[in-house]
Amino acid sequence: MLKRTVKAETSPGRLNGSGPIAIVDIGSNSVRLVIYERLARTPTMLFNEKVLAGLGRGVSTTGRLSDESIERTLSALTRFRRISDQAEVVDTHVIATAAAREAENGPDFIRDVETVLGTSVRILSGREEAQLAASGVCSGVWKPEGIVGDLGGGSLELVSVSPGSTGEGTTLPLGVIRLEDEAGASIRSARRIASSFLVDNAKVPPADGQNLYLIGGTWRSLARLHMVRSNYPLPIMHQYRLSARETLTFCDVVMEADLETMPGAEHVSRQRRPFLPYGAAVLSEVIRVTQPSEIVLSSLGVREGLLYDLLDAETRSVDPLVASAGEMGYLRARAPSYGGELINWTSQLMETLNFSESEWDARMRTAACLLSDVSWRAHPDHRAEASFSTISNANFVGLDHAGRAFLATCVYFRHAGPDEPLPEPYVAALIGPDLIDRARMLGVAFRVAHLICASMPGMLSGTRFEMRDGALCLVLPPELAELHGERLDKRLGQLSRLVNAECRVTAVPPETV
């Protein structure tokens, strides 16, 4: 691990904390540098670059890394070190996987890597790869249940995962570069090879009707192709979800198609396209053997798993959605602490109305409160649309696509008002009428809160809700009585329609305070 002293200019748009931390990931297909803003529950990328060096090409047949792939990798690493110096990285972690682990000339290659980067390399065992992949999913998916599959160029790792625990994991020689070499460019042979390693293998964990979480560039490219071909409206890869049956059908299509002419294939890089049929072959066999119900893409994998494992237990237990929403609110809201007051205020509103909340509902409301003011700098005529675009496309984790649509729609109604049409037609398909109604209600509640305190802290907590004679009363103490006005009454009228109860302002007489 290479350590340096932070000297970087401090930016108001940065959460500098511990300073930039870098991971260099030397895989069997790609070599990548990712620089993160800091070590945190939801690490944010400052820089991300990969080179498809193909280190694993030919290793299964020759036993050696080729001179060409070594040269290409060392050239990329030389550049990566210079970029890391420019970003004033304070910690650098270097990991290497199957190709470097298995090649006869791997030790010599690793020594050259350490010379170029000036730090040591951690060569991951297959079991360590599986464990870090599982940690990556735990980092990015709230309370995952099922198995994690990490497909690289040289190997496939499979490991069970559940909230608070992971299985031992297993590694199989089914990486796409290795599989292409051993199958002699025959997809039918590739499927047979994959099946032979997976069927009746006691170390392969079953999904048993739970989720199969996919990690790896080839599988992400497959998902991207599916998104394009199905005209999916929200092009966010993390937690993109498919049924197992639909995935099997799509894998069959990819294995039989000519990817140079297949519609939508232009959205996959030319370097990745040749591996898609092999990725589909492995995926189809994994599904048949492990029997998941749904397939879920994870943008976080081994690298993020390494960072996750560096955190203390208390930080790991934090909800990643709440953490990332809080960071965005801190960086963009008029007053970051206002979000916390809004959480408590809306919680009391929900209790007063006797509205039940599931864990998912409560998480969404909490995040929405933290995000309610992130677009205040946009032009007033466009704050609603700006909020929807910013939140629906934000780099959040711990959030499924329905959650994205809900949060974005909720803050959209906070600015647009409840009578405007949905911001995008796909919202109705992702969250349905009940959640749309709840998004409208919360959006209007945010509008009421804004008129009380101008989205600034210290005043909202002095108000409360009560039910009196079947009416929802916003109770103002004497020192806030002057806040009562026509516009506040109008917004309470909007809330009244959405909660099916009369809403009015009630001032507390001074002698009762």
Could you characterize the architecture of this molecule?
The protein has 19 helices and 16 strands. By secondary structure, the chain is α/β, with parallel strands linked by helices. The chain has three domains: 2-123, ATPase, nucleotide binding domain (Nucleotidyltransferase, domain 5), CATH 3.30.420.40; 127-305, Nucleotidyltransferase, domain 5, CATH 3.30.420.150; 320-512, Hypothetical protein af1432. The strands form three sheets. Strands 7, 8, 9, 10, 11, 12 and 13 form a seven-stranded mixed beta sheet that branches. Strands 1, 2, 3, 4, 5 and 6 form a six-stranded mixed beta sheet that branches. A three-stranded mixed beta sheet has the order 14-15-16. Helix 14 (338-353) packs across helix 15 and helix 16 runs antiparallel to helix 17 (401-416).
* CATH architect. name of the largest domain: Orthogonal Bundle
**Strands, total number:** 16
CATH topology group of the largest domain: Hypothetical protein af1432
- Radius of gyration, in angstroms, nearest whole number: 26 Å
The domain count comes to: 3
List keywords for this structure.
513 residues, Nucleotidyltransferase, domain 5, Hypothetical protein af1432, 7-stranded mixed beta sheet, 6-stranded mixed beta sheet
